[in-house]
Amino acid sequence: KLVAEVLIGLSRALCVPVTAVLVFRFLANSNRVAVSRLQRQAYGRQYPLLLVRTDGSTVHIRYKEPKKILMLPLDSNTLPEAERKARLRRKFPTKLRAREEEDAFGKLDMEKYKKFWKK
Fold first, then answer.
1. Of 57 and 105, the one with more pLDDT
2. Is 58 in contact with 64 (CB distance < 8 Å)?
3. Measured between alpha carbons, how far is 4 from 16 in angstroms, rounded to an integer?
């Protein structure tokens, strides 16, 4: 009885890899492409990318577009009030007031150059 249990356990242990190999060979068949669609959520190539988080830490990820670095946006609600206002001032600068430009010919004496106009 003990020998039979050992043989059954041994046969189960040996059969699992064999069936796994057979199933894998079936899934790796080239005809599978024509029978079914690709079983993935996202299709196509993904490129390596360095993701920079808001705290400055970096993570290497795969992304759909070929870029080098991707920075996550900073949450302005977590910043101190002074820094938040400074960032807003840099983002939306005040428009300069338009100065009245002086006429370029206002300071010139036209009578002085009148001789050049006569024929």
1. 57
2. no
3. 19
Q: What is the pLDDT of residues 61-104, one digit of tens each?
A: 888 889 999 888 888 888 899 999 998 888 888 877 766 666 66
Q: What is the DSSP string of the chain?
A: -HHHHHHHHHHHHHHHHHHHHHHHHHHT-TTHHHHS----SS-S--EEEEEE-TTS-EEEEEESS--SEEEPPP-GGGS-HHHHHHHHHHHSPPPPPPPPPPPTTSSS-GGGGGGGT--
Measured at the CA of 44, the angle between CA 49 and CA 31, to 5 degrees, comes to 145
**Mapping DSSP to helix (H, G, I), strand (E, B) and coil, where does residue 63 land?**
strand
Give the contacts of 46 (CB within 8 A, at least 6 positions apart).
Answer: 62, 63, 64
**Region of poorest pLDDT, from 27-31, 40-44, 65-69, 96-100:** 27-31
